Amino acid sequence: MLQVLLLPDMSRESSVCLEIKPKAGVLPGARNVHQIKKSVCRFCMHQRLKHAEGKVSDLSQYCPLALFSKDKRRVSHAIQSLHRTPQNNFRVLSHLPPTASHLEVLPQLLHSLSSVLEDLKAMHAKDHLDIEGVWALSQLIDLMPDTINNATNLGTWLASLSANLRCEINSAMDHAVLAGLTKSPWTNLTIDEFRALYNLILEEFHVATTYKDCSLLITICHGAAEETKWTPFEHTIEYANERYRCVVAIVDIDIKTHKQIESYYKLDQAILTHARDLAWQPCQDRGINR
Fold first, then answer.
1. How high is the pLDDT of residue 192?
2. Where are the alpha helices (DSSP H) in 113-244?
3. Is position 83 within any domain?
4. Which domain range does residue 188 map to?
5. Which among 7, 74, 120, 227 has the fewest CB atoms less than 10 Å away?
6. How far is CA 197 from CA 5, 128, 188, 200, in A?
7. Residue at 10 is within a domain
8. Is residue 255 part of a domain?
9. Whole-structure pTM value
């Protein structure tokens, strides 16, 4: 049976409703990823590629790592950057546009609801191996003949593969051990056990990918709290001697499994290929002194 969660009606004549698509709030933790990914986030690199391809006219100064940083200056810079260059990451859903006060309240709200952003980061971190590792394991799955004995030792079968692919598999599987997804030595896994492990990794990759593309719906209403709350999840923020009623909801979290792993990998490699020729400042250094 199809189940639908309906959000409460949070619209008021004096309220401002916003949609923020924060994107990935963590850098890849896998050792097998390209070096640049360890200091520059996917969003910032993808912006440069989109700009070079003419898909966006202006480069956004927004960085997801700043929004998730818990540093009020960086969070404020992230919000201002989204407002200046919204693209599809910042939308006004109400008839009233956000004022300067609303934009100043947003960092306070996100700071007070840091657990929401931490929960999102935890979902993002389920991408244990990055697409580079998932792609390598998918290649291994594709190479397995239908006639292979499921009880065959994985390490024995790997010996028949090319040196380059074995290197990629070794790196990805070593990190899978570090992430607690399997035990060492992983080469002792049977083919059947490896397939089960791959399905788990793929499932969590899809969860992470979904949450990296979800949205925050935020409603802010200026004024004193009413007797009846919109929802049990309503929050009150005090800022500059004024009171704001706020509600935040995470939406668009239906797990997306329709896209092929190859498509994710090709886009990832296109972003990396373009990024290699550019000078980069680590994301953690951006927005601090602005």
1. 94
2. 114-124, 130-143, 154-158, 163-178, 191-212
3. no
4. 129-206
5. 227
6. 32, 12, 13, 5
7. no
8. no
9. 0.89
